[in-house]
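new request in #modeling-help
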Amino acid sequence: MTVSHHPRRPLRIAVTLVLALALVACSGYPNTTIGAHSDVGREIDSLTYLLLILGGIVFVFVEGLLVYILIKFRERPGDTTPAQTHGNTTLEVTWTMLPAVILAIIAVPSVRTIFRTQAKAVPNALQVDVVGHQWWWEFRYPQYKVITANELYLPVGRTVNFSLRTDDVIHSFWIPQMSGKRDVVHKDRPNYMWFTPESSFVWNGACAEYCGASHSNMRFKVFTVPPAQFATWIKHQQQGPVFPAAAAAATAADTSKGAAATAAVAAAAPADTATGTWPRDKLPSWTIPETPVPANVTVAATSGDATRGAQLFKTGACIGCHTIQGVSPGIIGPNLTHVGSRTTIAGALYPNDIEHLRLWIKDARAMKPGSIMPPMGKGLPETMGTFTDQQIADLAAYISSLK
Amino acid sequence: MATTVAAPPSRAATLKYEKGIWSWLTTTDHKKIGQLYLYTALAWFLVGGIEALIIRTQLYGPNGRLVSADTYNQLFTMHGTTMIFMAIMPLSAAFFNFLIPLQIGARDVAFPRLNAFSYWIFLCGSLFINASWLIHKAPDGGWFSYAPLSTRTFNPGLNMDFWVIGIQILGVSTLAAGFNFITTIINMRAPGMHFMRMPVFTWAAFVTQFQIILAFPILTVAVVFLLFDRFFGTQFYEPAAGADPLLWQHLFWLFGHPEVYILILPAFGLVSEVLPTFSRKPLFGYPVMVYSLILIAFLGFGVWAHHMFAVGMGPIADSVFSVTTMLIAIPTGVKIFNWLGTMWGGSLRFTTAMLFAIGLVCLFTIGGISGVMHASPPADLQQTDSYFVVAHFHYVLFGGSMMGLFAGVYYYFPKVTGRIMNETLGKWHFWLMFIGMNLTFFPMHFAGLDGMPRRIWSYDANQGWTNDNHVSTIGAYILFVGMLIFVYNMWRSRRSGTRVGNNPWDAPTVEWSTPSPPPPYNYAKIPQITSRYPMWTREGPHSISAAYPVGAPAEAPEPTAEELHIPMPTPTLKPLLASLALTLAFIGLIWHKQVPIIILGLALFAVVLLSWVLTPLEPEH
Amino acid sequence: MATIALPDSHADHHYTATGQTHTKIAIWAFIGSECFFFASLISTYLIYKGRSVSGPCPHTVCRGLHPILNIPVTSASTFVLLMSSLSMVLAHSAVVRGDRKYSRIWLATTALLGTTFLGFQAYEFTSFVHEGLKITTNLFGSTFFTLTGFHGAHVTAGVLWLVTMLFVDMKRGLGPRDAINVDVMALYWHFVDVIWVAIFTLVYLIQ
């Protein structure tokens, strides 16, 4: 049975509809691994169903037998000493062979699936390089020279081949609704994993290998979109930041295909048609994080000026860790060139809105335990910045304008 | 090595040691050492349980903030480490100690002082690692402590220092006991006690010791590498130096998988003792039960990488380990059927011990089924590192090991103390534990299949995991109530439980021929064994209608060892002193590598050891 | 059914099911365990062979540094250790036949040869450190020093054991009744020797 990477259109529509229905039916469990939405995911599902069915049969048989025995052979008044049976060879051989048969029924499709799903990806697959960091995910599209973080866009119907590496400790890359997980183990020798998304939606991802203080907070979002929208998104990501870069020194990071943006500072949010990003108002509720903000982090400012914020960014410590195309070259933290168009921040821990941005910039370490990003607010312990609350509001305004 | 250099202590001095706390500190009696293990292990089980309760309370609802993420990471690390190394293993050791000599018709273990040393170094190690709580720097790398997260680069504090050293200390205890019990079982069986006449518990213990002496050295090496990296700057787990991050995983799981069989086989052994007694018929298929133990132990060394299906070993390795893992399910599953066969056709009496034994059969089956599900690598890529695997291992460790161990406690309590535990309280304990356990862990299967990763500190309400977590937490509290009832039952029964005679359960194996509790020398005369079930006739137990406890407690006190001219080992403080000295050396290491203290500790250890080996075990006669 | 007979004299006191002493059984179990210990150390050495990114290499010129292992010298120390096994056999044989003079001579010789081996090791370790290979230097340094260091620790323990035996011999004399304890010690000593043969072959000889 070969896996088709390009199902015919009507089939694809039908499958999408069925899955959408299943989605509605299972909407109480948004991250369920049952009913996965990729080719590999469905192969895993078949195995899981087989295992559950066989397991269920064994469970009913064994436990049922146990219950029967407990009732039938319980001690009753007048019982005589039972026959002192020492064994029964036929029976023992049978109940050795029978499990072996059941296991063979499991082993054969398992090994077949292993080899099928771990075969080399198709040559025209979309390449995505994943780099796990403590505690965020970096995504690169080498074929398009795009670097982003925490939000992964994938075209429906095209196989994506992930190359998985870590920058520090072992993490595990997991999108439960798409496919199984794979650990990121080495800095230099990637693990590979591929699948073909089959429907368009938003999916939750998480790190699944304990990796330190903020392991729980190392989440990401996956957007599977129609190929045309993906192309738009890629094109937009390749361009420089939307906010004009005022007299910035050209840096080595400036490899954008498009010129430095000359678009006016957006007074309104960019439409999807321009950026290819998933509209905020169409996000399913379970992809919007609800992490409470720590009580001790506050920012006393009501509005910020993005132009002032841009200046503060360029002269502050931020440039040491973050890349904004044409502005700053830092590679320790996530690429912020188009951070304004992401739906979440801080490893999908908080929604990407101005309030959360301000709090994050002020004291990232309180917002996310162990965060490598230090606090930037003035006077805070371990702070690397001297920003007042107003300056933080300005910075946040700048950051959020980078659509 | 019993070469005489020092004169043995006088008889008067020996008599002084027989009562009070001093008698416990200097004991070499396997029965006392067994009790020390039992109470210490139960105490750590409660500590591990409280750690679990805090975890469950934190996870009760979405975005709990009972503890910080940092504390949470320490809690789940210590919960796992405590339960495995300081609760289940020493509980098994309690039974090894108390039962093995009695079951094989011996007077003690082969090396009684080494036996005492095993206990004391275990106590020291467990206190050492838990002392980290006092400075809120408990280990926080997970109980299996993956590198590079556990290296100094990524975990620079004292937390993991406590872990690496503590594990080494605990390993010394387990290894020493392993050599002791292997020698005991091979060499001290009573005449007629052929291997195929040994009680199944002793077989299970025997096989477990072989796994221990072969698996623990691998752990020792893995942890030595980590310890050296952290303390001396070696490069074993430093990726920057070219080290392979997977070396730790391979070495650890080469130990870790045999370890899980070390954790379950003793419980299997206890169940194999309890079920026949309360079914009033022999164990079904004794030879197969023995062969399956040996096969499990052997195959257990060939499945380790099934803990690593997600690391990208390649399809061939994945397939090989998948098949070996499925293979090992066969001897394990056979045991379940043999236990069912034991009960089939019997006359079942549901004492508390019997209920717990049946509980293992029921719950381990569930754990075994989820285990087989894990054996398929593609499916496992969804299950591993999620709550599904948390459900699996709690079913086999709690529903399996702990149920079996509790069965053993209720069954052997009368032999140890001379009184039986209260059956009403026992049944409350059982049902609360059975219901609580299922409420706690069954929903975790769903949470895992619903995408909840492991070891996460908190989660959002909109992820679909809230209900499962609600139920799990309620179950955990029910478990805790059950444990409180058990503790009360133990305390009360020790003081005022009904006294019993030699064989209150009308059980078949030879340890039930001794008084309850047995005298220090166990058997006045080493018994001559002529069958697997010396206490039953060919037709089975003597009377199956009598209520428990069967038989009356002894009227007259037993003769003393002196009266019977049985030489007994001299009580000695040296095992305790040796443990303290060794621990001192390790304290020197963790405390900023204070070389003088390390040297002092090692020197004291050498001195005590020398004095120990040059002193004969027993007074010269 | 068991027959529990009346209390007896302590005739049954020294009974063992196999006819061997406890220490004999225990030392074999211990040796089995130690095999897995050294197998883990040796495997790690072999896995990491050739994977150091800096620092000296065992057999080849690398990074401008000459190969660091000295096969001729280590061959000599290996010979010394092998001879110590021979003297150990002779010591045991002397104890068995109650030859007090030769039991002392051969025990002392074994201890001396063992100490000589350790001397060679100490020389080797210090010269390596001077040539730029420490335990912290690279994967080769870490694995090499840990493996040979633990072996050396085992030899040291053996030497201390021998010295203790010698001390007992001088105090009260070792006779045929001590043969079993000398036998057990000899087993340990030979095991340590065999491990060295494995290490010497896999680390020094095979390139």
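bot summary: Residues 1-7, 245-271 of chain A have pLDDT under 50 and may be disordered.
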